[in-house]
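Same chain as my last thread, 436 residues:
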Amino acid sequence: LINREETISTPSSVKFTNVVDITNNDIYIEGFPEKSDQVIDILESFTQDLLTYYQTNVALPLRPILEEIYVANRVGSCRAQYLEKISYETPWYNEQSSYTIISLDTIQLSKDCYSVKLTRGYESDACESEGECTCKETRVARTTGDSVKIYDFTESIYTFNLETVTVTATTQGCTSQGASSNLRLETVLKDTASLHVDLGGTSAESLGSILSPSTIDNLEDIRDIVMWDIGNRPCLAIANGRTTPQLTVYELQGGSWVLNTMIDMDAEISRMSTVVFRKTENEENLEVVHLYVSKNDTLEVYEWTYNENTATFASGTLIQTVMTPGLSAMQAFQFKPSETSQNMIVIAVAYEIEMNLILSSVIDFYEYSVTDGEYIFVNDDKRHTFFVESPITKMEARKISDYMNLVISTQKKIQLYNFLPNYGLDFVSEYETGAF
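reply #2:
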């Protein structure tokens, strides 16, 4: 077909082996112009509608949203700014009572429903043995809107809600120094698979299995109780004893609580805390639990591990002792500074120190080094934070804003700080409470 006019009656049989230039005006296909115009009109209409949708629903709203985000990041709208007192009547608290508040814990269950646990202490002559006698009672209040339900117990109640179990531990209300006490455990094994489905179609029986109550005897003056899960195995740590202080750890096996570790202490345990995390060591994946045991002048760190590659446990190893003379408060926490960074495991330690004839409090931070396998002094600009108010009675770490926040209480005030990596504590606000 070279420079001549030709009518092709069977188009499917024509093959061009070389480059052939043909102008549109020289080609006629029956019905093609009309069909081509229809296709072009449809594509034009679809493209115009798509552009209109994008402009209306994406481009136009996105601009002010980006501006709001830009401004918010610079004015700190996602950061805690100050503490403010609100007027709220507490029907579960009677100011005229003579008891001492030992602890107060609040859990928000929904938008207008929360649970309050109030532990009260007072001296009593109800103990069987002679000597100093301390009694503890527990009040649990559940508030929903304006309604309040109050439950009083003459025992100390500990409640733990883990991934695999729910445990309620009950101790005797009145104990005297050197007297033997016991711990009653009520355990519910969770059916994790059923809890992850729609609860509307879940029966009460499928939520878990209720184990028979069990009792741990011969415990002297229980000071604190903590729990953790490792390798889907619940563990319960008990700090008990004044004359013969001990750390006793039980684990749940086959529906029974069995002894895992018993460690004699050289001093009375004042408080405990735990952190659960994962790490890789020698190309093996480990689930790790650190148990922090604080005493008068030392903080001991015990480690439990579960090797996911070999499905083996290692229990109760003392990995480090941190000297903390005059320890008054301790808080362990972990957080992720950014999406691309690794989790930081940090211990905040508050202790008293005398400087220039003035007794002040100091907070130091220790960070866990996976490479060294121990906690090292944090290299922050404000590695030592001094407080004239002394002592620091309690610390609590929570991520309530863009930052990890540390709430610190003294005898006269509550203070809120941001914890910034490589910097330390950044003061946010404080609230004067008076002596408490």
